[in-house]
Amino acid sequence: MDLTQASSSANARRTGSAAHASGARDASVAHDLHPDAFFDERPFLRRLTLVDWLFALALVAGAGFAFSRYHAHMNYYDKLVLGGTVPALVVLGWRWKPARLLMAAIAVLSVGAIQIYQGDLARADSAFFLKFLLSSQSAILWMSALFVLATLFYWIGLLSRSATGGMIGTRLTWAAVVMGFVGLMVRWYESYLIGVDVGHIPISNLYEVFVLFSLITALFYLYYEKHYNTRQLGAFVLLVISAAVGFLMWYSIARDAQQIQPLVPALQSWWMKIHVPANFIGYGSFALSAMVGVAYIMKERGMLADRLPALDVLDDLMYKSIAVGFAFFTIATILGALWAAQAWGGYWSWDPKETWALIVWLNYAAWLHMRLMKGLRGNVAAWWALTGLLVTTFAFLGVNMFLSGLHSYGKL
């Protein structure tokens, strides 16, 4: 080999070595930027930080305080519900970090409102912060206004391709959720100020459950918004929440429904505290899936196609929402049967509410069966999800408006 060949060979080796090093660096950078690079393979508990454990400790301490102060007013089942709620909230806060700030804000504002009341319900009309911000009616009115504004900003963000509009919509939705939960917590306290025999958890009539429905639907949406890193769907999901808020306002004005009323005998049961929330987790998830179905149909037909998430993302979100809703609705139906056996002496009586609950369950059971067994996807799945919202709405509201039965205590 002559000197020229040797020099060329050395240069080639140096060039190859440099290219290899550069490629390794590029691969390393690409790996660092790839989402999988942030996946921690350690067991879940070993990934928890000091902040995670302090959050859990704060929840346990709060539950301990509540138990020490109110255990005389709690039966065995109330204590069981409290004991089960704490670990559930701890895991939620560990898995979904924004939930921590939400819980803290609700606790601070609710406790602050209770302190301002000083045991006197009349202060709701005289104390400034209660009258204009923290009484149950004021907080729920703030919730309603914030949800409508959030809907407006989500649509502005979607139509104008404005990231700022979507961001404002998200923040307004979070604020609405905070005020709605504060309204429910304070309403719970207000019911006991009216009378110990009147006091009850605020999920007993259409006014209260419409607030609950709005909050649960919004929370599920906010989780999926973070998970899928998209705000475009807020314009659609917040529409159904704004519709619920519109009904809530009409119901308050036309029926004076915001007034706290004693529980009817059939509702004076601890079953209500677990059956109703489980039911409305189902309703909220079904409503969310329907609005995602609307977005799917619009994108497939070329409307706002370049501004909405990919069809496979919409399809996946629709499936997950229905699956979660179906699981909780199934639990709620079983709990409802157990409650019925205690209240009326039988697990099932083909009451209109029970019958339509079964229809809702069968509808989504068929949807999931077709999805898992037959590969249901696309346009048919989206239209089915949207039709399911109509069935669910009748079971939720139409039965109370047009039919009578054992559940007529929720009649309009």
From TrEMBL:
Residues 1-14 have a biased composition (Polar residues). It is a multi-pass membrane protein. It comes from Paraburkholderia dinghuensis. The gene is ccsB. Residues 204-407 form the Cytochrome c assembly protein domain. This is C-type cytochrome biogenesis protein CcsB. It is found in: Membrane. InterPro entries: Cyt_c_assembly, Cyt_c_biogenesis_CcsA, Cyt_c_biogenesis_CcsA/CcmC. Its main location: membrane. One of its GO terms (biological process) is cytochrome complex assembly. PANTHER family: CYTOCHROME B_B6 PROTEIN-RELATED (PTHR30071:SF1), HEME EXPORTER PROTEIN C (PTHR30071). The keyword Signal does not apply. Residues 1-23 are annotated as: Disordered. One of its GO terms (cellular component) is plasma membrane. It holds the Pfam family Cytochrom_C_asm. One of its GO terms (molecular function) is heme binding. The chain crosses the membrane at residues 50-70, 101-119, 139-160, 172-189, 201-224, 236-254, 274-297, 317-344, 356-373, 380-403.
